[in-house]
Design brief:
The chain has a domain of about 100 residues: 3-Layer(aba) Sandwich (Rossmann fold), CATH 3.40.50. It is about 25% helix and about 20% strand. By secondary structure, it is α+β, with helices and mostly antiparallel strands. The chain has a four-stranded mixed beta sheet.
Length: about 160
Amino acid sequence: MKTQSILVFILLAIFSIPAFAQGGPDGLLMPKFITPTDNSTSTLLKDLSKERRFLGEIPAESEINLLKDIAFHKSKSIDGEPMSLSLDLLTFKDDKIRPCVVYVVGGGFSSAAKERNLYDRYEIAKAGYVVASVQYHVISNGIYSDAVKDIKAAIRFLRANAKE
């Protein structure tokens, strides 16, 4: 019986070690190589301020407007409760059509207040872009794939309403 137990333990150890050692010491799968990304359609904004500042509201003399809480998607929380997702939009006071940057506020999917980082969004807008800061599901009311779907819904909404 003792020999059988040792044999079973050895077999379990042999077959379970590869399951946990799929990469580095922390068990993560690590890439063998990283393919360069195609950034040919990207625009690098070089003239942004490097200084981090807090901006509570858009300056009154600015040519930029802040439109708050524009509903873009009806959804449900992980508990099945209805949710209305919204975005904040930095636009210009003139009617000129401009490209749009979708600003996804980071927070490790534990928090995602679309109102954060107004200074950063304002700097991007001053470079000539409409900026949409999007609310999305976080861990308290959804799962990761919900957040991705929310950002896709925001992009669909912005494309459909670009001329407004």
